[in-house]
Design goal:
Arc Repressor Mutant, subunit A; 2 strands; 185 residues; 2 domains; flat; Rna Polymerase Sigma Factor, Chain: A; mainly alpha
Amino acid sequence: MDTLVQRHQARAYQYAFRLTRDRDIAADVVADAFVRVYRAAHTFKGQSAFTTWLYRILTNCFLDMRKKASSRPTISFEATLQTEEGSLEMQFEDLSPSPYEEAERGEKNRSVHTAVDTLPEYQKAILLLYHVEMLSYEEIADVLELPIGTVKSRLNRARVGLGQALNPERSLFTNEAATPEYAVA
């Protein structure tokens, strides 16, 4: 188990961070996932790569954590706090994205989804396997039953095609102040 954790921990954390966008929550997701891997190791049949199985467990841990968080009751804080010196108004910084940032992210996502949908199916599949499922070239070659060189060239052509499809929307992706948190899924 130690070897598995050492070998896959960094990659698992990167994936969890992409899902959560929060360092602490990503660390919790990874820890929970490796506990599940330990408990369910005897059920792994080797019909797929271990990393594929691990990503599925990480995804499930993330979804379970989100489900638990959304079912927790929220507590309302009073607007003022009474002290001996008088009343203090409680203020909390809102760290959530502004409506403008949310709209911009939504527009970027819509543009990427639309552009990906214009690609031929084999290019769409290879982009998703590499950038969303984060499979290696070797794993994609196994899945699609192609030589690694073909996987690399098709992935490159898919990226070029995606860039061309996004060219009319270029202004969405060139703003230095905006953070590109879009996903190709």
